[in-house]
Design goal:
four-stranded antiparallel beta sheet, alpha+beta, single chain, 55% helix
Amino acid sequence: MAFINDDIINEIRNNTDIVEVISNYVPLTKKGKNYFGVCPFHDDHSPSMSVDPVKQIYKCFSCGAGGNVFTFVMNYENIEFVQAVKLLGSRLGINISGIKDSSKVNNKEYNAYEIAAKYYQNNIYTSLGKKAIDYLEQRKIDKETIKKFGIGLALKDNKLTSMLIQKGYSINELINLGLANDNNTDFFLNRIIFPIHNLNGKVIAFSGRIYNTSSENKYVNTKETSIFKKGSILYNYHNAKSTLKKNDYIIVMEGFLDVIRASTIGINNCVATLGTAITKEHINLLKKISDNIILCFDGDAAGEKATITCIQMLSEIGISPKIIRLKEDLDPDEYILKYGSSAFESQIKNPLSVTDFNLTILKNGKNLTEIDDIAKYINEVLKALVKEEDLIKVDIILNKLSKEYNITYNSLNEKYQSLLKQNVKVKKEEVKQEIKKEQRPKQHIIACKSLIYYMLKYDEVINMVENRVSYMPDAKYRNLSNEIIYYYHKYGTLKEADFYTHLINNNPKLLETMQEIEILNINEQYSQEAIDDYILAITKANLKEREKNLKNKIDEEVDIMKKAEIANSKFNIKINGGIYDRRN
């Protein structure tokens, strides 16, 4: 979160025409009162993004992207809010000296790591660092790469802790930051140091590797701290995003040495998960930087498992990655060293599709000279093909199976078509069940969303909701409603474009809910009757939830008198729910 002077932000937004800015990135055509263009945030083939010049907001009716001029520039340019404000402010010549970088919240922590990084980097270039440089050069990491990635050296002398204490840090602060031990010694001793940066390029952690001794722990890493959360960081993200254009691909690896090795052969669009399991935060970061993703995890069984998990997580947000599987259980670092740059570049140019990868996986553990295993494999392939949307690819695979295993094409296609019909029936049933499932809470959820939709457009609806709705049953809509009411009381009115800025600057977690509300296909003008109906639906849902909670209390209560008291409360709720009278 950034701390920014609201007056400067509002001045920049109010003096910036969103249509003019977006048209610099995407051609826009006027239709009626709005402008329309192809949405740059998904694979859009027909104009589905609308830009409203009056409200100064945009929204895509296909993927749900939306916001004001700041959110558009942030998402298109892959930059943070502060950078977007500076970029748009510079276009207007507006003084933006009031903007402070959010990193200053943790300035002392970042400064400690900056000092440590420079200390380690200085060490490696002294006479004491000669063996470390020799070791790295033996590993084919030259001095240019050492400098590029800020590789350093921790000595045996514990000087870093003493230096930081002299600069005003307490030993407890250094312990909490993972730079010192509780006996006043440096955490990293006699190790080559690889710095780890946050998304904006600040050093926030280290990984230390042995080089002239033996140890069971080849690598020692900084523990999680106030500024370092392993599951939220992709190694080299700050460098990779600056080299990528919108449609370029990004390569995801496991270890930082894999990324460094790829860089030595001129491949700089790589990031690494630092050996940890892929997280939702990682997936969101990848989605932000590119939709074209190549997974290149280690060639062993663990790497295969990580690839399968990552494919599943990416598919949930509509991304189908390409996959590289390296032979001989090698990781990218080992593969490049063994087979050279041309071989690895060939892997990048010819990655597997998800379908190809799945077909390869299906061969695992099968002896494809045995009839039973062949039959099992072919049946599994046909089941997997049911999910493949490219019918040409299906036909190619069926022909390949026919030739490879001497089975007629018609037999394979007949079985495939049968499975396809079964899958369609299953999907239809799943859709029916999903519709039934959604219908139960649908009335009050629609009511919450619709009320918020009108709260964003009419100040008087904000007052109605504040006075008549005590509680929105769904947490995400409740939080957004509360934020709207807070904003309205603070500023006396609400403009959607300015409210977007408020969320970016103060509560970015609510942006997704805001975008969901913005694309509702309902009448722009509200009626009092509709507002009354929405409030009634929410009130009934709240009463029903209270009734359910009281029933659970009755079931848990052992005292007969208390059971009776709770039952009486439950009865009153039921009566109130039935005779609820609308209020104007």
